[in-house]
Amino acid sequence: MMTIGILTIIVFGMSAFVTDGAKCLNSKDVERFVVVNCAYQEFLSVPSTDILKDVETLNLEHNYISKLFNNSFTEYPNIKNLMLSFNKVHTIEPGALGSLAELETLDLSQNAIKEVPAGLPKSLIQLKLNGNPVLDMWQLETAVGLRVLQLRGCDLKAYPALGIMPNLVNLDVSENAEIYDLDPAQLAVTCRLARLNVTGATNLFRPGTPGAHCRCRRVVQWAHTYKVTVFGLGQCPDPLAGDGETDIHDDPKDEACARTPEQALAAFKECMAEWEHRNTPYWAIVSGIVIVVARVGQMIV
């Protein structure tokens, strides 16, 4: 029987081919992007063969990869979407993602990662860390273009300390039952946040907790003022202490109860200044082009 070296398949508008003995399926999607599917292949590390060098979407989900080395992706610089969920990743060397200058989506959900990977590229738009015991977030500062961050079910003990992230618009911290507090200052550093999911944070503003009513109202007021849609927050608790008596820290008639703290306003101002700083070159270039085009048009007329 003649051995077929390459099998060409047309499936749902995708052209795909596999080479003899290969475990990964190389294909091109309807937009002609190079896609490589290596899921469910029991890999212990990122394979050095079977993957096209110009791969743009690499799926390594549901394997047994435990460590990402500095040279794991050096031969695949065009990767835009990298899926590594449901592996056993616990160590990511500092330069493992450094060669991925075009990376936009990184899914590391359901691994054993305790800190945000170092060297996240500036191109990164979406980061999924769901189901990891993440403790350290400071490496997020390098991902200056990050817009979507998922930390669902990470056993967080508190709302994450993110630092100034003006590009972040979508944050998911749902299914973290031990998050107990949230205040406008924490939201202010993500000054362009539009969507926040705290569903399942059952200890957040727990009734009977001193000051819970007013702290909750301040968050609600902030969300209303800055147009943040908050999922899973629910109604603010009654301003009563655990024994049914009025909580001195929760007087709803006090003007300060729902007032935005000065610290939050200062953080918001700093965050917006950083956003403008990051985007000024872009807008300056666009404005310059518009002016030049307008002047050329006037000269022609």
Give the fraction of residues assigned to helices. 10-25%
- N-to-C terminal Cα separation, in Å? 74 Å
N-to-C SSE series? EEEEEEEEEEEEHEHEH
Count of distinct strands: 14
Mean pLDDT: 87
Structural class: alpha/beta
Shape: elongated
What percentage of the residues does DSSP assign to strands (E)?
Answer: 15-25%
- Based on CA atoms alone, the radius of gyration comes out at 24 Å
Question: Which spans have pLDDT < 50 for at least 5 consecutive residues?
Answer: 1-21
- Tell me about the largest β-sheet: 12 strands, mixed
| Order of strands in the sheet with most strands | 1-2-3-4-5-7-9-10-11-12-13-14
Helix segment tally: 3
Quick rundown:
It holds the Pfam family LRR_8. With 301 residues, this protein is α/β, with parallel strands linked by helices. 19% of the residues lie in helices and 16% in strands.
